[in-house]
Specification:
Elements lengths: L1 H48 L3 E6 L5 H13 L3 E7 L1 H12 L3 H5 L7 E6 L6 H12 L4 E5 L2 H42 L2 H9 L4 H37 L9 H32 L8
Antiparallel strand pairs: 1-3, 1-4, 2-3
Helix pairs in contact: 1-6, 1-8, 1-9, 6-9, 8-9
């Protein structure tokens, strides 16, 4: 009979530990995923910004030396990612492929102009900086016009700010919820041992002595939950990097290490704080209050 009860207690304890580890792992995984999203919002935004093309259309009178000099100057500029010369023949060929027919056969001539397609570094893709560049380029005598998708640039910058703000708000809310969930799981596991806590206190054990084993046990559970969350986050990162290699999610190992290290430390910190206050609550209760 005694052995049966002991096995029951062990199963109950293991079940309690399992629920704590699982809740910690799930919550930390969610927080880590939000942190990953927050860190990579800029990368994703930068990727889309750098796809915006500014086309410098050149006049027929433009000399080859002027075109080459302009292209090299742009390519060497710190704010330019790439500057590619596109002849009107290449442009006509691309346009014909896009529309599915040879428009020059219909018109009888090529209406397109030679151009230099410029893609800027992400930090310089703002309406103000692009307008400065447009003013500078149109001032050159051999540049006919400068064309780019102005509404898209403004929309992209506005949306990046909004998305970053709401991800930050969501991260704050989920962090608060995470603390509550982990705290509830740990409190439930300690609640089952409230009579043991009070018995130890009644035989003269100090509060610090009673708290210590509970804190160390739940810190270890928090570490285990954090490790599981880190493994899941690593798998998620690997999958996303395989599907979207252009985002370069593994480009900054320091950033990834800080994120995963933060998840691990957060698991330890929340477990320690929750256990401390949960045990303190039962230590401060009177014996008759333990039954309610």
């Amino acid at each position: 009979m005694g052995k049966s009860f002991e096995n029951y207690q062990k199963r109950k304890l293991i079940s309690s530990y399992f629920s704590v580890v699982l809740s910690i792992a799930l919550v930390l995984f969610l927080l880590g995923a939000l942190g990953m999203l927050l860190l990579n919002t800029k990368k994703m935004a930068d990727h889309f910004k750098e796809q915006i093309t500014i086309s410098l259309f050149l006049k027929e009178s433009a000399k080859e030396i002027e075109i080459n000099q302009l292209q090299k100057t742009l390519a060497l500029a710190e704010h330019v990612k790439s500057a590619v010369y596109v002849s009107k023949e290449e442009a006509a060929e691309r346009h014909s492929k896009e529309i599915g027919e040879n428009f020059m056969a219909f018109l009888g001539y090529n209406p397109l102009k030679d151009a230099i397609d410029v893609q800027l570094m992400a930090d310089f893709v703002t309406p103000e900086r692009i307008e400065e560049m447009v003013s500078e380029m149109t001032a050159k005598a051999y540049v006919a016009e400068v064309s780019y998708d102005k509404p898209l640039v403004g929309l992209l910058n506005d949306n990046v700010k909004k998305i970053g703000f709401w991800i930050l708000v969501a991260s704050g809310i989920f962090t608060f919820i995470a603390v509550l969930l982990i705290n509830s799981s740990i409190r439930l596991s300690i609640y089952a041992k409230r009579f043991i806590i009070k018995t130890m206190q009644m035989v003269g054990a100090t509060k610090a002595f009673i708290r210590r084993p509970f804190i160390w046990t739940n810190i270890r559970l928090g570490m285990l939950g954090a490790v599981l969350a880190i493994l899941a986050l690593g798998g998620l990162l690997y999958y996303l990097n395989t599907v979207f290699p252009e985002l370069g999610l593994f480009g900054d190992y320091t950033e990834i290490a800080i994120l995963l290290g933060g998840v691990f430390l957060l698991g330890i910190l929340i477990s320690w704080i929750s256990t401390f206050f949960a045990t303190q609550r039962f230590l401060n209760l009177r014996t008759d209050e333990l039954y309610y």
